[in-house]
Design a protein that fits this description.
- By secondary structure, the chain is of the alpha/beta class.
- It has twelve helices and twelve strands.
- The chain has helices spanning 52-64, 83-91, 108-118, 132-139, 145-158, 178-188, 214-222, 288-293, 298-310, 316-319, 322-325, 332-335; strands at residues 15-19, 69-73, 98-103, 122-126, 162-169, 191-196, 227-230, 240-244, 250-254, 267-270, 275-277, 286-287.
- It has a twelve-stranded mixed beta sheet with strand order 7-8-9-6-5-4-3-2-1-10-11-12.
- Strand 8 (240-244) and strand 9 (250-254) form a beta hairpin.
- Helix 1 packs parallel to helix 2 (83-91), helix 1 packs across helix 9 and helix 2 (83-91) runs parallel beside helix 3 (108-118).
- The two termini are 27 Å apart.
- It binds iron/sulfur cluster (SF4).
- Residues 261-262, 265, 267, 279-281, 314-317 line the site of iron/sulfur cluster (SF4).
Length: 337
Amino acid sequence: MGTDSQDRFGRSLRDLRVSITDRCNFRCRYCMPREVFGPDFTFLERSELLSFEEIARAVRAFVRCGVRKVRLTGGEPLLRRDVEELVAMLAAIDGVDDLAMTTNASLLAAKAGALRRAGLGRVTVSLDSLDDAVFRAMSDVHLPVGRVLEGIAAAREAGFDEIKLNTVVKRGVNEDGVLDLARYAGEHGYIIRFIEYMDVGTTNGWRLDDVVPGEEIVRRIGEHLPLEPIPPKYAGEVATRYRFRDGAGEIGVITSVTRPFCSTCTRARLSAIGEIYTCLFAGGGGDLRALLRGGADDTELEAMIRGTWAARDDRYSELRSRATRDLPKVEMSYIGG
Ligand code: SF4
């Protein structure tokens, strides 16, 4: 078990999001718009990606620095072949108390059982709409939303500890579908989180007018399905939670734009090529892969992680302004949201 690492604002390192591929089979407008990530876009070479062994070694080093929760992301993590083998390697690491994956679920129906057996605890599915036309418009993919729903059903069948749905809400695009999504989640026992549309990366053309504030989302749902606030499950939880008054289930809103939560952010990110990012909005990341491939021992890996975290002073969402909006930022598909 590791010892605590603290950044400049006294925030401990607890969570790690590991991007295992920069590729995705969707082209969501807010993440990988087709005009940028089109047929001519050059994705990373396989040899550039961290191998499963390198990822496991990096995660062990992060755990020694205090990480307890690990989430696999992408791109789309299920595009990485034999990903269940990586899950098994990470599940076996002493000190990883929580192992989760964020996926678009289009390939989950075939993989859910193997992932569960390998030791994956929780699954989070990105689902922006139940309406096929809206879903296709937002994900810019020729795939029925039914495919995603089949993936979610397979996850339920596989018996994961928790299935969570993440919905990015964009003004005038999918805001009218939030009630249906809340109902669907409640009926099936899934937790749903509505996320304010964010100015991530440089390619999504974000404008403040596109944001539907969390408060408004809660009001819209609460008018039909009465809600009451519930406390966070753990310190640093990013969602503001509500439970349905007339039955089981909960919704949450992630208000990174209207009510930022940087002061409790304990999350580091490892990119698919092994760079450490200390903020979703970071412009650059420390190169852990150079150490992994350069013969560094475990003490050196740990020293780099601790050093990077100790220097961390990120609080982008709190500082969000016209000035920061134009700073260079990394794309979300590169570091996994
Ligand atoms: S803006 Fe950066 S520091 Fe703030 S909550 Fe998001 S990832 Fe954490």
